[in-house]
TrEMBL record:
Gene3D superfamilies, sorted: Ankyrin repeat-containing domain (1.25.40.20)
InterPro entries given in the database record: Ank_repeat_dom-contain_49 (IPR051637), Ankyrin_rpt (IPR002110), Ankyrin_rpt-contain_sf (IPR036770)
SMART domains: ANK (SM00248)
Full protein name: Uncharacterized protein
ANK repeats: 68-100
Transmembrane annotation, as ranges: none
Keywords, ordered alphabetically: ANK repeat, Repeat
PANTHER family membership: CYCLIN-DEPENDENT KINASE INHIBITOR 2C-RELATED, E3 UBIQUITIN-PROTEIN LIGASE XBAT34-RELATED
Source organism of the structure: Eutrema salsugineum
Length: 236
């Protein structure tokens, strides 16, 4: 069974194909908990081997049962392999699986500072993304002239990971200072927020989001085009 590992490690794609067609153990696990495909997804130089193993039917969501407990997508996100991340997502890799540290591949990429990986995964799973404006001035300025103190922010709405995939996804609104940032400035758990419906009789429709419980919070405004949203949140 170790022959397939050896051929993958040596980048011998022809022998890998041959062994794969001979059913030489695509999902065989070594003493470190790796399948041949997981091994390939931990090395930049083995990208061709990844494609070969996928063609042979390797499990794109294989889970590594060791101290890390991660999928191939976790491994690729952890070491910044952008092409591998794109390949895995295009072949059905689940970006919402949690590792043993209760992190999704997206959270792993954020922690490692790989903004390119963060943007790649977010663009694959987001329900919304775009530039908005965040207002942060004193309350009287916010009320009468909110445009005076504002800054552009990149905003995405993404589902969160869950230990129970049968339950409905929970959504987060994630705010970044720029597209170059891997770490978000603020994460707003939308399932904990109170949403007031916009008033249709207003020329510039608005929506307010706030916490369901009374806790210490800070205030800001976010806008998109001519639609303004007042947002009250506490830091997560």
């Amino acid at each position: 069974m170790g022959q397939l590992f050896e051929q993958v490690s040596h980048k011998d794609n022809e022998d890998t194909k041959s062994l794969g067609h001979e059913d030489a153990g695509l999902e065989w696990v070594d003493k470190e908990g790796r399948t041949p495909f997981i091994l390939a997804c931990t090395k930049l130089k083995l990208f061709d081997g990844e494609k070969t193993l996928l063609q042979l039917g390797s499990d794109v969501n294989a889970f590594r049962f060791d101290c890390n407990g991660e999928t191939p997508l976790h491994h690729a996100a952890n070491i910044g392999l952008e092409n591998t991340v794109k390949l895995l997502l295009s072949h059905g890799a689940n970006p919402l699986v949690l590792n043993d540290d209760f992190q999704t591949p997206l959270e792993v990429a954020r922690a490692q500072g790989y903004s390119n990986i963060v943007r790649t995964i977010e663009s694959h799973i987001c329900l919304f993304s775009g530039w908005m404006r965040e207002f942060y001035g004193p309350s009287y300025v916010e009320l009468f002239a909110p445009q005076l103190l504002s800054r552009r922010v990149w905003v995405v709405i993404v589902p969160t990971g869950s230990q129970n995939p049968t339950k409905p996804f929970k959504l987060e609104l994630v705010v970044y200072a720029s597209l170059q940032d891997a770490q978000p400035r603020t994460v707003i758990p939308l399932w904990k927020a109170k949403l007031e419906e916009p008033k249709s009789d207003q020329s510039d429709a608005s929506v307010m989001i706030g916490p369901t419980r009374k806790r210490q919070r800070r205030r800001g405004y976010i806008s998109h085009a001519r639609r303004w949203a007042q947002v009250d949140w506490r830091k997560c």
